[in-house]
Specification:
Elements lengths: L7 E5 L4 H12 L3 E6 L2 H11 L4 E5 L5 H15 L4 E4 L14 H29 L2 E6 L12 H19 L4 E8 L5 H4 L4 H8 L10 H12 L10 E4 L7
Parallel strand pairs: 1-2, 1-4, 2-3, 4-5, 5-6, 6-7
The structure holds nicotinamide-adenine-dinucleotide.
């Protein structure tokens, strides 16, 4: 029997990249998965490939409270319950401080930080009522050490939000943890036009390479499953040793 047999998960930003890898692993471990994203075609394609009894795609902007209400209601209508939330959707940009506009800053805040808060709030309500659940918030290595302004700020906030929510929700049997990936081979990295820079950067990683999304999925699976039953409010790092330097 799979580690997630009988469980229902919502994974945001799962049309591609790490979210898609998590969705595939979750289904192979017996879960039913709701994939959400702003990218409709890619999300629908993935859900269809996983099978209609196993996966549902819902178009969602994580920064919209109304969209969250819809995602929670549609998940319950289709699969009956919500056991796992992976707050994965995120964007990045790397601009020097003086080039970041107020609009840039508001946008990254709305998706990475407000989106995580809205998801936590909408889903925790359901999990508290069923006295069980696991929420995994995707922060970053840049939620532990500094990186680009804007991105780093939101990822530190996700880490802090995780601890505050974990303490509040622990008596209700709901666990909340953050994961902190280093550099992972996804469209976020490849589309930034930084392939050469990433190659150079990889030389400074203790394990001397960037990671595949599936290597992060294994950590997310651990946190989603009952294998991590005594872990809450903690940081789980998947960075090839970068933060140890
Ligand atoms: N790739 C890395 O090296 C790395 C490292 C550390 C942390 N992370 C974090 O991991 C998460 C996944 O990143 P990835 O590398 O797979 O990126 P990605 O760009 O491949 O995937 C992110 C997904 O989020 C979706 N998304 C963007 N805005 C959205 C919104 N408003 N509502 C719903 N969905 C939205 C995108 O459409 C995309 O499908 C992000 O939170 C990212 O910050 C990535």
């Amino acid at each position: 029997m799979g580690k997630l047999a009988g469980k229902v998960a919502i994974i945001t930003g799962a049309a591609q990249g790490m979210g898609a890898a998590h969705a595939k692993l979750f289904v192979s471990e017996g879960a039913q998965v709701v994939i959400t994203d702003v990218k409709q075609a890619e999300g629908e394609q993935l859900a269809a490939a996983l099978g209609p009894d196993k996966a549902l795609f819902i178009k969602q902007d994580v920064a919209s409270a109304a969209d969250w209400e819809h995602v929670v209601a549609a998940t319950k209508a289709q699969f009956g319950q919500i056991d796992i939330l992976v707050n994965n959707a995120g964007i990045t940009f790397a601009k020097p401080l003086q080039e970041i506009s107020e609009a840039d800053y508001i946008k990254i805040f709305q998706i990475n930080q407000l989106g995580t808060f809205l998801g936590l709030k909408a889903v925790a309500k359901e999990m508290v009522a069923q006295h069980a659940g696991s929420i995994i918030n995707v922060s970053s290595l840049n939620g532990l050490v500094g990186g680009a302004v804007g991105y780093t700020d939101t990822k530190f906030a996700v880490r802090g939000m995780t601890k505050a929510a974990a303490l509040e929700l622990a008596p209700s049997g709901v666990r909340v943890n953050s994961i902190h990936p280093g550099v992972i081979e996804t469209p976020m990295i490849s589309q930034a036009g930084t392939a050469e820079a990433v190659k150079q950067f990889a030389k400074a990683i203790p394990l001397r390479r960037i990671a595949e999304p599936e290597e992060v999925s294994q950590m997310v699976l651990f946190l989603a499953s009952d294998d991590s039953s005594y872990s809450t409010g903690s940081e789980f790092v998947v960075d090839g040793g970068m933060s140890a330097q």
